[in-house]
Amino acid sequence: MENLEFGIVFTPNVDHIIKLREDREFREAYNFATYVVCDGQILLYSSWFLGTPLTEKISGSDFFPAFYNYHKQNEEIKIFLLGAGSGIAQKAQAKINQKVGREIVVGAYSPSYGFEKNESECWQIIEIIQSSGATVLAIGVGTPKQEKWIYKYREKLTNIKIFLAIGATIDFEAGNMRRSPRWMSNVGLEWLFRLILEPRRLWKRYLVDDLPFFWLILKQKLENLQSCSKAGIN
After folding, report:
1. Could you tell me which of 234, 186, 164, 156 has the C-alpha nearest to residue 56?
2. Cβ partners under 8 Å of residue 161, min gap 6
3. Are 57 and 38 in contact (CB under 8 A)?
4. How does residue 4 score in pLDDT terms, banded at 50, 70 and 90?
5. Under DSSP, is residue 79 helix (H, G, I), strand (E, B) or coil?
C-alpha cells in the first residue's frame, strides 16, 4: 500500500479473463494497468493448478477500505467515488468519512445508465472530478465499463494520481449490498452468494458466460504437460 503513489489498479476475476479474450478495447485498457491484483479465489486455485501460484487474493472490496484506512492521516489522498445507483455514492462518501474521521472522500457521483456512451455526461463528470480536488478516483460501474472509462479519460483527469477500478465496492461501503460471508469468499463461493442475491442480473454471467474458463484452464494444463514431455522434463 505504501508503494502505491500513482498508477492504475485493476482487480481481475474469472469474468475479466473471459471478457479479455473477446474485447480488444478491454485488453488495451489492461495493458495500461500499473497494478493487477487477483480478485477471486478461483483464479488463485487456477494459478496453483497451473504451477504458477499467485501469492494471495485481494478483492477490490477488501483493497479499497484498506487503502483509505491506510491513508486516513494523509491529507494528500482525496478520493472521488464514481458509480452505483442514485444517491448511493453519496451515502458511501458519508460513511467512509465518518469511519476515517476526516473528509477523505471529497466528492461522489452516480452516473446515469449508459453514461459511458454519453460524451456530454462524461465531460460533465470530468469537470466535477477535476473541481473536487480529488487525487484518487475510485470507479465502480461494472466491468469492462470502469476499466475502459479509465483508459479513455485518464489523461483528461490531470489531478488524479491513482485510479482504482472497484466494481460493487461502492454499494458495499454504502451498505446498499451485502458482502458474502468471509468463509464463502475464502473457499471461492462468493459468486454463489452474489448469484443468490441477484439471480436475474448475474445468472448468465456465472452459469453461462464464465463456464468456458474451466475448459481454458484444463487446456492450458494439458498443453503445459505436453510441452514438458517434449522437452524431457519429468
Report:
1. 186
2. 5, 6, 135, 136
3. yes
4. confident
5. strand
What pLDDT is attached to residue 172?
A: 95
**How many whole angstroms separate alpha carbon 229 and alpha carbon 234?**
7
> Pick the residue with more confidence: 3 or 170?
170
- ∠ CA 150-140-74, rounded to 5°: 80
DSSP state of 60: H
Question: What's the Cα-to-Cα distance from 41 to each of 13, 17, 183, 199, rounded to whole Å?
Answer: 9, 14, 11, 21
Instruction: Give me the amino acid identity at 6.
Output: F
Q: Does residue 212 have a cis peptide bond before it, meaning omega lies within 30 degrees of 0? A: no
How confident is the model over 125-156, as pLDDT tens digits?
999 999 999 999 999 999 999 999 999 999 99
CA distance 19 to 125: 26
* pLDDT tens readout for residues 24-67: 999 999 999 999 999 989 999 999 999 998 888 888 899 999 99
* Burial (CB count within 10 angstroms: exposed 0-12, middle 13-18, buried 19+), residue 179: middle
- Identify the DSSP state of 102: S
